[in-house]
Amino acid sequence: MKKSIFILLFGGFCLPVLAQKAIEIDSDLQKKEIIDLSNQTLFLLDSTPKKTIDEIRKSQFHNFKKLPNFTHTSRYSANIWLRFQLENPSKTDTLKALFSAGSSFQTSIYSFDNQTLTSKLTTNKLLLDHQRPFRFDGQFLPISIPPQTIYTFYVEISNFSLKKIQISPVIVSYGWEAKKKEADLYENRFAIALNYSFIAILLFLGLFTLLQYLLNRQRYILYYSLYLFAMSAFGIWGFEHSSYVVYVMKFFPFLIDSLRQNFYVLLAQYCYFLFIGEFLAFTHSHPRIGKTISFLLKSIVVLIVVELLFTLVLKRYDWEVYLSIFTQIYLSVFGFLVLFYVYQIKTKLAFYIKIGSTFLLLGGIFGFISSWMQWIPQSSDLLDHYPNVFFNTCILLEILFFSMGLAYKSTEIIHQKNDLEQAVSLSELNTLRLQINPHFLFNSLNSIKSYIIKNKTDEAADYLTDFSTLIRSILQKSKEQVVTFKEELDTILLYTKLEQLRFQKKFDFVFEISPEIDTENIMIPALLLQPYIENAIKHGLANKNEKGTLSLIINDLEESIEILIDDDGIGRKHATELKSNSDGHQSMGLKINEERLKLLNKIHGWNIRCHIMDKFDSENKPIGTKIILTIPK
Predict the structure, then answer these.
(1) How confident is the model at residue 204 (pLDDT cuts 50, 70, 90)?
(2) Helix (H) or strand (E) holding 365
(3) Which residues contact 144 (CB under 8 A, 6 or more apart)?
(4) With a threshold of 0.85, does the pTM exceed it?
């Protein structure tokens, strides 16, 4: 008797859990086109979630109405299994319909005829249309039941990544699905247009600024381009969860499935702070803000590493949810702090960053509040991640002001470049006046006069010919910023020859050049060497009692040429003591030439270097000067 009571009680307890009636769907489906399976469906939570289908079939299922609600974190703790039975009472027709479990990310369905597995189908929102069991929608799975047959179905719902989980098992006809899709497309037309426009604008501006960077090589333009691409990836990640949208991520599923939205938020914010830090030059102009941004960038890198650890390595998406919440709070606090610092900067350039960053911060705040208060839907049957109109609008306004700031800074750079080019022109004029100085002209004419008085007409004629050639060459080169290395050497050799004659062979001249150097295809600044040669002769060799030597040696290096101007004169220190440059001309010539090199390096991106060395003997007495010029090829 006790045993009978126990069996009765146990059977009464198990009856609502295990007993399951097959649903006849032939006639109902023709009339309604959709059948809700909730009342005749059982569920099971697989917390491992590694059970095989055979183990699942032996497990105890529960009434579907007792299915718990899933929070943002609990949805990752288990797979959901559904079980139901469908009967096709028709004697002749095979039943063909579509099954949907609702807003799930991945669904697998197993069909059993008694104990025999007849089919297994899997779909998820990331499959391309030709990869899906039902190519027109990743939410539905086709089922087929032969006449007068009862099938038992097991449905596994797993791999959640949606904002909202809603399990609603239904059977629908193909016609109902087509009409529902048409209605969904109409209802979501504004959201789809907004998403496409938002992403298209970001991608276009990203490509445009990337091309600008390739032309201008300004790092802040590169960082802005990367920021736009990161924001595009953020938008595409949510948009491509729809079955009807394909950009690029669906070809690389881990970009959507493994990497979560928080990764793209962190990536975009990292590029954003890189951009404003470089754009406003905080490191040099505002060290306090620069240190804050530097710390923030390092902390974002740490958060990205932790994000990847949780998602790609540990697969702990529940932990990733908490990290995402922390990220939103952390970035908001530092966003306010950086924006506060930026508002302290009173420049026109900072104005665009102030307004743009304000819109970015407001977009994040209003986007979060509007989603939390449900002012706008978070998802729909068509779009798993519904676009937030407040956030998208603020981002577009931010990009508008940032782009205006880029345009303003580009205009400033053009003006600065024009000013530098004008400064170079003035430097060129000063250099010209120094090349044709009164002393050189007066002494040269005296040398010609001396030849004539001594009836050395041939020497006078040769000297006058070389002199006129040199003057014409200097005048021509003064109009050009760069000349070929051959033209520069021709001018210098002629100038040195005249100086040797003028100083009555008081010094020997040694000229050597590596045969590998192609002097006709190497460009250098015009009249670059003359001030150094003149300084060596006038200061070093002219004041020497015995005959001296001036050397011009040109060596070929791997990526540059090296020019050595060496004299064994009295040295710079002794020359200063003798006050040989009392007219100020020589020292001014080298100073202006040095300024000219700095300007040319800055404008053209050259790297011409000049190093002047004083030579001493073993007794530390000056024995001349060596100048080393390095010019890139």
Answers:
(1) very high
(2) helix 348-372
(3) 94, 95, 96, 119
(4) no
536 is written with which tokens? Answer: 């060596």
CB 364 within 8 A of CB 358: no
Could you give the CA distance from residue 279 to residue 516 in angstroms, rounded to a whole number?
A: 44
Mean pLDDT of 396-401: 94
What CA–CA distance (Å, rounded) separates 69 from 53? 24
Which residues, listed in sequence order, are joined to residue 622 by a DSSP beta bridge?
616
Residue 216: which residues within 8 A CB-CB, separation 6 or more? 410
Residues in the chain: 633
CA distance 595 to 520: 26
- Alpha-carbon distance of 153 to 25, in angstroms, equals 14
And the tokens for 15? 């009856």
362 — phi, psi (to 5°)? -65, -35
Across 413-465, the runs of DSSP E, i.e. the strands, are none
- DSSP lists the bridge partners of residue 550 as 509, 567
**Closest to 240 measured CA to CA, from 190, 195, 274:** 195
> What letter does residue 160 receive in the DSSP assignment?
-
Alpha-helical regions (H) of 240-347: 261-279, 282-285, 287-308, 317-342
For residues 544 and 308, the model is more confident at 308
| Cα 579 to Cα 443: distance, rounded to the nearest angstrom | 20
Within 10 Å of residue 371's Cβ, how many Cβ atoms?
17
Q: Where are the alpha helices (DSSP H) in 536-617?
A: 571-577, 585-604
| DSSP codes, 188-237 | THHHHHHHHHHHHHHHHHHHHHHHHHHHH--HHHHHHHHHHHHHHHHHHH
- Does the pLDDT value for residue 432 go beyond 80? no
